[in-house]
Amino acid sequence: MRISTRRRRQALCAVVAAGALVLAACSSSGGQASTGDNSAPGVTDTSILLGTTQPLTGPAATGYSKISAAMTAYFNFVNANGGINGRKITLKVLDDGYNPANTVSQTNKLVPQDKVFALVGSLGTPTHTAVLNFIKQNKVPDLFVSSGSRSWDQPTKYPTTFGWQPDYTIEGKVLGDYVKKTFPGKKICSFGQGDDFGADGVAGVKLTLGSSLASEQKYTPTNTNVGPQVAALQAAKCDVVISFTVPGFTALEMGTGAQLGFHPQYVVSNVGSDITTLTTFLKTAAIPLTNGMVTDTYLPLTTDTSNSWITLFKKVDKDYDNNAAFDGNVLYGMSLAYTFVQALKAAGKKLTRGTLVAAAEKGGFTGPGLVPFRFSKDDHSGYNGVQVVTVQNGVGHTTGSIYTTDDGSGALSAYSKSQPTAPSNGLPG
Amino acid sequence: MNLVRRLWQWTLVRHLVPALLGVGLVILITDQVSDYRNTQLTTLGAYICVAAGLTLLTGTNGQISLGHAALMAVGGYTVALILQDFSDNNITGQWMLPLALIAGTLVTTVAGIVVGMAAARLRGPYLAGATLAFGVALPSITAQFTSIFKGDQGIGLIFDGPPASLGSSFSFSHWQAWYSLFAAIIVLFFLANVQRSAVGRHLRAVRDDDVAARLAGLPAARLRVLAFAVSSAAAGLGGGVFAVGLQTASPGSFGLTLSLSLLTAVVIGGLGSLTGAVLGSIVLIYLGDVIPGFVDRLHLSATSAQKMHDNLPPAVYGALLIGVMMLLPGGIASLARPVVVRVTRRTTHTTGCNR
């Protein structure tokens, strides 16, 4: 009995080891080389499955959680009008809570498990940076990341990742230039998110400001106490604070400043300046606190009802997005979805991951943007400029020229081409 | 046959056989499952490393730690920083990652010795409080020195994928799973030997009666620090392979929830038992997978499904913890123990407490 047990154990050992060897041999010879370019998982003749990671909860959820709903609404509008090349779009939205660790696990669900064809508009600098390598290995088209980090523009390193909005360095350069001309002799300071979002933006400001900042403060999205940073800005006697913040932290910065009796001239990056979103945090204080705030835009203003794009997206919002309050987030989501539909259309009837990436690299998309995209084989960054906006009584007003520039030391140049009007049927031609 | 029996009485051999079986099993399983499952297995391997170290600390030596995720962070960040440095200097090669993992383990061991020296002076709730503070404080260092640690964004891990000799169908997640699960086997093998050695008995003696152990001439304080160091080494390697799985080291991955989950996993599995550490880790991973799948089959509205996805796994996990505590104080592993003991009694002559 004893012997037979031992023998059985030895036999089992041998079988497992042999099996393992055989399998290892099989896996090294039997597999086929994966050709990422011609693959099209998630695509049938009648449907396309897309995925995105979004902050539906957590420190960036307020405001930003409306973006994916707006994207879905525009896709549903397109689907109701026959889809793209006969294919209807489904967008799978997963919540990452603006926590990079969750973004990794959620992207792992979207790509290997749900087998999405492409990622579209996944949101956030810290969050999306964490999955860049994963996206590269899985060769997933990663179109139009919802963030202005310069990391999306690394075509040799990350060949399938593309930005969409102007990068934070461009925003920083235009805002820095405006501050230099409008507030000469004032003490300029910065308040930025403690990652590439803040770093890229502040780097841009320094490029045009030509002088160093009196105080550079940073925050972490997981720590909602910004008292020490705001007190430091106050102690440094800052006259102007240029902020690269998500809306929740713009509100915290302004609210904490008001409590401390600190009322500098606020200059806020586009992503943190939406008045509707700030009002959710600041309530009735939003109007006085944002009065005189300087920000920028690359899309028409949401309040510009005469603009054809605003009319179109308001209609889509009413019919497909439960008539959500039409703010910068809704406009953002729909504009991004519009550009994605353009890329899908350009990729043609024979849709593969390769044709989609090639279509994005070919570029030439025009839409709701005030400025052109930079897309080419060597450039995966999005819009190339912004226009300064000043806020009075909760309403934005564009001021000065629209400027285009690069993310390096290139000069700003005024852009005068007028924006195309929206197609009458609302679908890219 | 006599030779085999004699060899079998040797602890090293008795532990080497399951370890080799484990290697075979890992090769078999990781080859058969999908990329998604391999990603899960990568996390499982990391959890097993940490849980095994934690079970030695808490189960064998009687010290509690609520800050093991912070030790994982030390390992993960060390690996990330080393790999980043290699990448900045354009150095590539398959040897980079093992080297970085070893360095991560060593650095975490040193951190563990420092924490352990403080911990050796504390007992019960004070020790829990101190390690809790460590667990909370350490990740926030990353927010202070953003130029090095990149704040919440964290540092991406850049390392080579599977070598071409493994074939083109050998996926990246398969490669990650190998790293993680082989690390788990190394940790389990090492800790099994520690448990069965004189050191293991000394650790248990200190746990059971501090005064008696000291009267018997055991350096109790030094043994506590040693337990912390060994446990930290396991956590450091676990944190390293965890970061390898995520391909990033960020403070959000090493939060307090992870520390507490791992401790409860060890308790659910069976405190002081390596088998329990493995079983607890499996429960921890697969509850988070099985329950959302179950929720999806209920066809709820999107918002309530989302709420169930977020809240049901921790609720079930909590209920399971209470259930196990009441019905199986020895954890899930105690269910399997009678069988294991019967089998091993046949082939060895060892008796006594195997905890």
What CATH architecture of the largest domain in chain A do you see?
Answer: 3-Layer(aba) Sandwich
Number of discrete domains of chain A: 2
Helix content of chain A: 40-55%
Element string of chain B (H = helix, E = strand): HHHHHHHEHHHHEHHHH
* DSSP strand count of chain B: 2
Q: Give the overall silhouette of chain B.
A: globular
Q: Evaluate the radius of gyration of chain B.
A: 21 Å
Total domains of chain B, how many? 2
Oligomeric state of the chains present here = heterodimer
CATH H-level superfamily of the largest domain in chain A: Response regulator
Tally of strands of chain A? 12
Straight-line N-to-C gap of chain B: 29 Å
Task: Report the uncertain regions of chain A.
Answer: 1-36
**Poorly predicted ranges of chain B:** 348-355
- CATH top level label of the largest domain in chain A: Alpha Beta
Average pLDDT rating of chain A = 89
Short description:
The complex is a heterodimer of chains A (429) and B (355). Chain A is built from 14 helices and 12 strands.
Mind sketching the topology for me?
The complex is a heterodimer of chains A (429) and B (355).
Chain A: H1 2-29, E1 47-54, H2 61-80, E2 88-95, H3 100-113, E3 118-120, H4 125-129, H5 132-138, E4 142-143, H6 168-182, E5 188-193, H7 196-209, E6 216-219, H8 227-235, E7 240-244, H9 247-259, E8 265-268, H10 275-282, H11 286-290, E9 294-297, H12 308-320, H13 328-347, H14 353-362, E10 385-392, E11 395-404, E12 413-415
Parallel strand pairs in A: 1-2, 1-3, 3-4, 5-6, 5-7, 7-8
Antiparallel strand pairs in A: 9-10, 10-11, 11-12
Chain B: H1 2-8, H2 11-32, H3 35-60, H4 68-88, H5 96-119, H6 124-144, H7 146-149, E1 155-156, H8 172-196, H9 198-208, H10 210-215, H11 220-246, E2 248-249, H12 256-269, H13 274-296, H14 302-327, H15 333-347
Antiparallel strand pairs in B: 1-2
